[in-house]
């Protein structure tokens, strides 16, 4: 999924940094500035909601970074987790390229 998203975003002119795990995502968010984070709810070693919690409650300049949470889960528990962690928007998998680009546009408008 990361490679597909990178392809979509690269073709649309975005620069993309990939992370395979929650720990890699936290490390990348700690060392670089981004316009947006796209995070999967379920990842190896640390779920996406924990990554977002750490981002939101950290002392980083990135704490207010817009976050788009991706999830294949449609159960109420996953919806609650996405909302509780502070993600700005949720996009259900599978999604269309245009849905992804539209969500990114809405989250980054005016930045």
Q: What does it look like?
A:
The modification 4-aspartylphosphate is found at residue 40. InterPro entries: Bact_response_regulator, CheY-like_superfamily, Sig_transdc_resp-reg_receiver. This is Response regulator. Residues 1-108 form the Response regulatory domain. The chain is of the alpha/beta class and 111 residues long. Helices cover 47% and strands 12% of the residues. It has helices spanning 2-11, 22-31, 48-57, 76-85, 97-108; strands at residues 37-40, 67-71, 89-92. The mean pLDDT is 91.
Structural class: alpha/beta
How many domains? The number is: 1
| Quaternary structure classification | single chain
Mind describing the biggest β-sheet? 3 strands, parallel
The total of helices stands at 5
CATH architecture: 3-Layer(aba) Sandwich
Structure characteristics:
111 residues; Rossmann fold; alpha/beta
């Amino acid at each position: 999924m990361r490679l597909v998203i990178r392809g979509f975003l690269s073709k649309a002119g975005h620069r993309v940094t990939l992370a395979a795990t929650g720990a890699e995502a936290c490390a990348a968010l700690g060392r670089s500035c981004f316009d947006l984070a796209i995070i999967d709810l379920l990842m190896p070693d640390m779920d996406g909601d924990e990554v977002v919690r750490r981002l939101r409650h950290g002392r980083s300049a990135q704490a207010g970074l817009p976050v788009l949470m991706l999830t294949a889960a449609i159960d109420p528990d996953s919806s609650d987790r996405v909302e509780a962690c502070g993600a700005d928007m949720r996009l259900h998998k599978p999604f269309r390229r245009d849905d992804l680009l539209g969500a990114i546009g809405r989250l980054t408008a005016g930045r």
